[in-house]
Specification:
This protein is 69% helix and 0% strand. The chain is an all-alpha fold.
Length: 160
C-alpha cells in the first residue's frame, strides 16, 4: 500500500514539474536584434485563431506555431509591421488582432450603442410628454355628457 501511495505521489509531482515543459519554446535565429524585438511585439499583438483569448506567443496550437513561423519569415524578408499585420488580417480577418483598427465595422461597434442610447432617450421623452396631453384632452370633454354616458351604461347593466 505504501508503494502505491509513493507511486501516486511521484506521478502527481511529476505532472507539476513537467508542466513548464509544455510551454512554447521556439528559437529563431534573427539576423538583427531589432527584428527579434519586433517579432516579440508582433507575436504579442496577434491573437491565436483557435485559442481565441491567447496571443500566438502564448499559444501551443499548431496554427499559432505556423503564424509565429510566418511572422519570422516575413520579418527576415524585410516586411514592415503594418505589412505583416495587414497580411494576417487579410488571411484571418480583423479578429486576429488584439487591437483592431478603428474604421469600418469596428467604428460601428463603438458608435451604434451611443446612437441607440440617444434614440432611446428621445423616444422616452416623447412618450412622457405625450402622456401629459391625454388628461388635457379629457378635461375638454363636457362633464355633463360623461355623466349621462355613465348613467346610461349603469342602467343597462341593471336591466340585465
Amino acid at each position: 500500500m505504501r508503494a502505491l501511495l509513493f507511486f501516486a505521489a511521484l506521478l502527481f509531482a511529476g505532472l507539476f514539474i513537467a508542466e513548464p515543459g509544455f510551454a512554447v519554446i521556439e528559437t529563431y535565429e534573427f539576423s538583427d536584434p531589432a527584428l527579434e524585438a519586433r517579432y516579440h511585439g508582433l507575436s504579442q499583438e496577434l491573437r491565436c485563431p483557435k485559442c481565441q483569448n491567447q496571443n500566438i506567443a502564448d499559444s501551443n496550437a499548431p496554427i499559432s506555431q505556423d503564424l509565429r513561423r510566418l511572422v519570422y519569415e516575413q520579418l527576415e524578408a524585410g516586411s514592415s509591421d503594418e505589412e505583416i499585420l495587414d497580411d494576417m488580417v487579410r488571411r484571418y480577418g480583423e479578429f486576429v488582432r488584439y487591437r483592431p483598427s478603428s474604421d469600418g465595422v469596428t467604428l460601428w461597434l463603438w458608435v451604434l450603442p451611443l446612437l441607440l442610447l440617444i434614440i432611446g432617450f428621445g423616444v422616452m421623452i416623447s412618450v412622457l410628454r405625450g402622456g401629459r396631453a391625454v388628461p388635457a384632452a379629457a378635461e375638454a370633454v363636457d362633464e355633463g355628457k360623461l355623466e349621462a354616458l355613465l348613467r346610461s351604461e349603469s342602467s343597462e347593466a341593471n336591466r340585465e
